[in-house]
Write a structure and sequence with these properties.
single chain, alpha/beta, 2 helices, 6 strands, 33% helix
Length: 187
């Protein structure tokens, strides 16, 4: 009795190898696509964080300017031209021109005597910001509330209106947020 195995002389075509290489190619493409999507989502999240930081900085500076006006016991004097020597620079409306399209460098260079942010403790720094948020104040005018009728020698009653403009550039310095508010104050 012979113990030889029967020889099969069938040719192998390599179908298994070809199929596995195609599957490996598909998995590689899926892996690369997933990595690119993950990287894009990380960038989007970083940009959103940067914009939020810039918005929070500008909001804090805006509130800082309003608080500065609220603390004043007398009407601050307007500065009709630059530079402003007043302890609290309040500009006459329109002197600084259109500020919305100014680059962050204009703000950081002390343009228009922009006031740096200061927190409640007087610290002029904001964590996470590439540069301290700044603001400036413009006096829009005085509006009488007595209907224009002068009675006696008393000063007319009314309110002064101010526009506070604040700017912040976020954590990276590339997100530029500018906020404005109108603030009315009776002195």
């Amino acid at each position: 009795m012979s113990t030889e195995l029967p020889m099969r002389c069938a040719r192998q075509s390599g179908a298994t190898l070809t199929t596995s290489l195609l599957m490996l190619l598909v998995l590689t493409v899926l892996g690369l696509t997933g990595m690119q999507m993950s990287r894009m989502e990380e960038r989007m999240a970083g940009n959103t964080r940067d914009i939020n930081m810039a918005f929070q900085g500008a909001e804090a500076a805006l509130r800082n300017g309003e608080a500065l006006l609220r603390k004043q016991s007398t009407r601050p004097l307007d500065c009709p031209n630059s530079p402003c020597d007043s302890p609290i620079p309040v500009w006459t409306a329109g002197v600084l021109g259109e500020v919305v399209n100014r680059p962050p460098s204009w703000w950081q260079a002390g343009a228009g005597n922009a006031i740096p942010f200061a927190d409640a403790q007087g610290q002029q720094s904001m964590n996470g910001q590439s540069a301290d948020p700044t603001f400036f104040i413009e006096h829009l005018g005085f509006v009488r509330t007595d209907g224009g009728v002068e009675m006696g020698l008393d000063a007319p009653s009314g309110r002064d209106f101010y526009q506070v403009t604040a700017q912040s550039s976020g954590a990276s310095g590339s997100a530029n947020i500018i906020l404005q508010s109108t603030y009315a104050r009776k002195f």
